[in-house]
Amino acid sequence: MSLPNLSVAPPSGQLSAETCLQIYDLMLRARILEERLISMYKQGDGYFWIGGPGEEAFNVPLGLLANKGAGVDHDYLHLHYRSSATLLAMGAHPIDSLRQMRNVATDPYSKGRNFAGHYSKREWNIVPVTSPIEIQYSIAIGTARAQRKGTGAKGISIVQGGDAGTAEGDFATALVWSSRKGNELPLLMIVTNNRYGISTSFQGQHGYDQIADRGKAFGMPTAVVDGNDPEASYAALQTALHYVRTEKKPYLLEAMVSRLRGHSSASGANIVKGELDCLEKFESTLEARKLIDRGEIERRRAAITAELLDASKQIRDEPPPSPDSIWEHVFSAKNLVGGER
Q: What is the CATH number of the domain that holds 59?
């Protein structure tokens, strides 16, 4: 079977009006969530911010197209800390991101014990986000091996990281272990490339123009998509997901996205000038198609902003985790030496 040579993902057709408005609402909600998290950090209501404003046009379609559920018959998602829009598209409530930012015991992802943006949800196969950069690529090998052709599993593994982290050995490990002849893994490898690694630009750090080119040496199909276009992203993800689901082999997809803020609150979370804003671009598209007008855009923004402001006030009185809960969700009780803790 010849491999598709996709240096650029195939152009998308227009999605239905209903799907476009669904994507837009989720993109807007994800953006306002990030703005609220940044405000909480600056006001002392949260401890740290790290997120992905500017990546909503790609991350929302990813969340909508993932096969959500528990176990090998559903997709495992190995995400990173810029994936809040994917969580919202899968059905997560934005107040839970605020709870993790504030480290309160009601945080459903880590009970107030983990870093902001470190999501995990067993019932949706969302594997815990980790702080060490890009190790999710090597972790994803494990779930993909459990879903290998011959096991009868219907799900695939999806792993996502940023462009700078592809310099880590874990990314290369995933390329090698997912593409071995006769032992290929059903793994969709995604790189969201905003051309920055914390404070280091892409230029001069990589020996190639596109990270997706690295997959060609391993015989896997690759594609590059405009991650600022939600319809192009939706189409590219459909193509990639269909290939991995039917062929049970790896695929490398690179999405070119924008970084609208500093990498994290450590760098000030300040606005980055000169970057294309995918939300503003999609609003213009929807206005041109007469699917929405400026008045409705402003009404939606005001309503979501008020909703999340109320949510941030609500969690101010929610308690932090108690000291005696420190050992919960750390070890598996049945694997502890000497019995349960």
A: 3.40.50.970
